[in-house]
Every structure is written in C-alpha cells, then in structure tokens.
Amino acid sequence: MVPDGSVKDQEASSSSSPPAAAIARAARPPRPVSFKTKRIVWHPLKHRRFRVGATKTMVEASSSAQAVRGARDQAVRGAREVGEATTAAAAMGSPKEDEKGHICGGWKSEDGSLYCGYSSLRGRRASMEDFYDMRSSKMGAKNINLFGVFDGHGGSCAAEYLKEHLFENLLKHPSFITDTKTAISESYTKTDSDFLDAETNIHREDGSTASTAIFVGNHLYVANVGDSRAVISKAGKAIALSDDHKPDRSDERERIENAGGVVTFSGTWRVGGVLAMSRAFGDRLLKPFVVAEPEIQGTRNR
C-alpha cells in the first residue's frame, strides 16, 4: 500500500515534466521539403517538350478576340495600291484602349455599304501574338472586301507576316475574280512558302491560323486554316462556316499519316506530339504534315 500523499506527489511530478517521446520528437531536425518531379517526354518529331500531366488552357481565336498590333494604322489608312486594285478604308472613329490594354473600334468600307467592329485583348502571353486585317478594294465593277483573323502560336512572326502579305498576294492573283476559290488556295500556300523562305531562323516555332471572310461583289467566301472559327447569323441562328482542323479528324489524321507523320495523344491529340491543330501557316519543323491548304465555303449574299 502506498500512502495517498505519495500517490499525489507522483502524479504531480509526472504532469510537470514532458514525456520522453515528446522530448525525442522535439530534438529531431525538421524534415526536408520533398518535391514531386514530373517526367519529361520527348518525341522524335517534337521540337518542344512538355510535362506529363501538365495542362495548358488555350483560348480559341474568334472575331471578338483579335490581334492589336497595327490596328490604329490599318484603321485610318487611306487608299493604297495592291496590284491592279486600290484598297480604301475609312475609320468609324479611332480605336479606344483601356487601362488593361483592351482595344476596340469600328470600320466601314469607303462606299459605306459594309460595317464591322473589332475587339482585341492580350491574354497571359508576354506579348500579343495575334493580328487582324481589313481591306476594301474595287476591281472593275466588283467591290472587294476582305477580313482576316490570324491567331499566332510559338511567337508573333507568322501572324504578323499574314497581316502584311496574305491579302496582298490574293489581290495580285490573276484569277482572283474569274476563279476565286483557286486564287485563294494558291495564294494561301504561296504565302506559307514565302514566310518559311523569309524566316532565316530555321529553329523558330512560329505558326498561325487564318480565318478569313472575302466578299467579291455579293459572293462571300470563307477560307479557314487551323482552329479559328467563322460563324454567320441568319434569322437569329448561328451557322458555322468553318470546321476546325484538328488531328483527331479522321480525314486529317489519314492525310498526316499518309505523308509520314504521326498523331499522338498527350492530353489532347497532337501532330508529332506537339501541335494541337493539323493545319497552320509556319510551323517549319512539322512540314509537310501541317499544311496551309485552306478549306473554303462559298455563299451568295442576298
């Protein structure tokens, strides 16, 4: 038997000093922070590397998200000669820019028969990689109006080149009026070839889509290269005038594989494990699998 007083003294003594296990834990050095590493995957045709499991949010270009560089000069530019055609554009007021770099404005043809508006906002890129172009011309009795959105990737060079040269080459084509679809197709592939010849740095990854609307008199031609989109509104209904050029399209995949390329899945379907679209201007290291041949839809504008 232990006296009551002794038991109380022992309990008080044990509660006033920490247990031995707690003392041992406190004496341990802090554990180093561990970082999970992600495996780097390379593909024989790949000129970029990506991390497995990483995701990238891509915003598709549309008529409401267009490039800004050169917008002010293009909107207020007067007549300029392009081959046998004279372009004439009149601005509906100067473009306005807010504190976030958002630029918007309007445009109308010289005869006042056609109006359009544009809006441009750079996303998370360090610099703007997208451009647009608007031109109004006259060839004989035909009024010509051209609109284009060029969504760049891997840099801004390809999209900027399209802004400066694509419609210029098209207007110079000898069959532009008599065989517009052939002129569009040949002018687009020529512009792609010219860009690759002009770009001296063979390791550049610049590429660009092109979504264009071309009015020849009362005929509308929509030519698309890449995954930018064109939509028309009729009787309040949205009607697609272009199909995205994606590697998972059966016809696109067959074309790529017949040319000796491969289509792989890395979060999404990609040409050579790299590019998530099957047609584009530029992208030198993915030629001839990624082509700039446009798909063209035509309609009569009533």
Automatic annotation (TrEMBL):
SUPFAM superfamilies reported for this sequence: PP2C-like (SSF81606)
Keyword Transferase (UniProt): no
Record bears the keyword Manganese: yes
GO MF terms, alphabetically ordered: metal ion binding; protein serine/threonine phosphatase activity
SMART domains: PP2Cc
Domain named PPM-type phosphatase: residues: 115-302
Sequence ranges of Basic and acidic residues compositional bias: 1-11
EC number: 3.1.3.16
Keywords, ordered alphabetically: Hydrolase, Magnesium, Manganese, Metal-binding, Protein phosphatase
The name this protein goes by in its record: protein-serine/threonine phosphatase
Lineage: Eukaryota, Viridiplantae, Streptophyta, Embryophyta, Tracheophyta
